[in-house]
Design goal:
alpha+beta; 125 residues; 2 helices; two-stranded antiparallel sheet; 6-stranded antiparallel sheet; endopeptidase fold (from Nostoc punctiforme)
């Protein structure tokens, strides 16, 4: 399964801070981790991190995940929500898939992400 299809299959899963299990809920890191794992990546993520510090936690990027321009569907996006908060999402054909704390679930938001792009990665597994 490709990253985009795996992420899209998570739409509707409830939001849960630090969530890693779709049956219990996911946050933005959980959405990306589960989508990558379902696409075949070996994902190792810290359980105690804070994207609100405005810095990316030291994540072990799986082999096959490479920096890119973030323009293709399925690309993993690192976005800056505010000066002190980062957010992960997956690019869709016409929008982004991400864990939305306000909506309380994983959503596919149409249009461009409303936050600046900091970095992006593409799975080539």
């Amino acid at each position: 399964m490709y990253v985009l299809g795996a992420a899209r299959a998570l739409v509707g899963v409830r939001f849960r801070a630090q969530g890693r299990d779709p049956s219990l809920g996911l946050d933005c890191v959980g959405v990306v981790a589960v989508a990558l794992a379902r696409a075949g990546a070996e994902v190792t993520l810290p359980r105690d991190y804070r994207l609100r510090r405005g810095t990316l936690p030291s994540l072990a990027l799986p082999p096959g995940l490479r920096a890119c321009d973030g323009e293709r569907p399925g690309d993993v996006l690192l976005l800056r929500v505010s000066p002190a908060q980062l957010h992960l999402a997956v690019r869709g054909e016409r929008g982004v898939i991400h864990a939305d704390a306000v909506a309380g679930r994983v959503v596919e938001r149409p249009g461009e992400a409303p936050w600046p792009l900091v970095a992006a990665w593409r799975w080539r597994g």
